[in-house]
């Protein structure tokens, strides 16, 4: 496993623990479909939340959330639509897209920044 994938896995584990500590219920991790992958699918109360986790050791190339550009937002929207179509029990739930930034500048520190409603696509209702 590459160090980049190891870093990503560590960040996703920290993000999942963070969400659980804040009362979220995780439905799926690393949800894969023909369109792509979503790091975490969770519930915040009755709201369905699609979470992208971005982990960095420095800000050399910008803030992690900046990696979620328009093209990726469109893909995440399509993944969420596929997820909702394959889980019709969730079709009427409100949903949102969050980004969790995990900073791991060295082995002694970590910082998590949870950006709720990081972006919206369309009217945020798919059906």
TrEMBL record:
CDD domains attached to this UniProt entry: PoNe_Nuclease
GO molecular function terms listed in the Swiss-Prot or TrEMBL record: nucleic acid binding
A Pfam family this chain is assigned to: UPF0102
InterPro entries, per database record: Restrct_endonuc-II-like (IPR011335), tRNA_endonuc-like_dom_sf (IPR011856), UPF0102_YraN-like (IPR003509)
Family under the similarity heading: Belongs to the UPF0102 family.
Protein's UniProt name: UPF0102 protein Mahau_1065
Origin species: Mahella australiensis (strain DSM 15567 / CIP 107919 / 50-1 BON)
